[in-house]
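Dear Dr. H.,

I hope your travels went smoothly. While you were away I took the liberty of generating a structure for the chain from your last submission, since the lab meeting agenda had it listed for discussion. I wanted you to have the full record in hand beforehand rather than looking at slides cold. The sequence, exactly as received, is reproduced here:
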Amino acid sequence: MERVTGIGGVFFRSKDPERLAAWYEDHLGVTPVPLTYDEEAWQQQAGPTVFAAFADETEHFGRRQQQWMVNFRVRDLEAMVRQLRRAGIAVEVDEEVYPNGRFARVYDPEGNPVELWEP
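The corresponding predicted structure, in token form, is as follows:
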């Protein structure tokens, strides 16, 4: 069976796409969509990717109308948390260490949940 080789993009609606793209670049290092085909898109490091559907009534994403959530792998969760907090961004750190790693959560300027995961 032929299989996909990875996620090629995450696409979602935004009230202010340019401002939101700048927030992701400034605070998480995710470069925005290239303006031309001559520019290179953000390159992620190889690693595990979880693709999972959640039950419609899940509370994992926060508010009920939230339909998606991005989970970013990070090398050093504590360093990322310090960086975000220095920038005035509220970070919720899950103090439990799970068999698959540690987690924290932030919300982007439009209220979308962003999970940070240190495997």
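Two observations you may find useful: The beta strands are 70-73, 92-98, 101-107, 113-118. The first strand starts at residue 70 and ends at 73.

With kind regards,
E. W.
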